[in-house]
């Protein structure tokens, strides 16, 4: 699965912002778009990352293993997918883990720091 973001800001606004309730449009105009094109595009990418969390949760609820991958060759994916209006951000593999794989947690348990070493109560 490849997750992509719309590259063209006017197209994004036409397809997404224009259909929102007035309060949400005001939020976009004053809290997002007011900070400029670069900030708006960064916000748009972050919205795609939010969908990743839902996707991974959905896979887990169906008993599927999923691994998100950044660092993909975005240009190669863009050419392969032939979606000129979108820019690929990341990919996710989905399937079933091989329990005999040497990297499977049942074969080689994950090492983790103690909770007190990484979480501080304030």
UniProtKB/TrEMBL annotation:
SUPFAM superfamilies: FMN-dependent nitroreductase-like
Protein name as it appears in the record: Nitroreductase / dihydropteridine reductase
GO molecular function terms noted in the UniProt entry: oxidoreductase activity
Domain annotation Nitroreductase: ranges: 32-96
Pfam entry (one): Nitroreductase
Top-level taxonomic group: Bacteria
Organism: Chitinophaga costaii
Gene3D superfamilies membership: NADH Oxidase
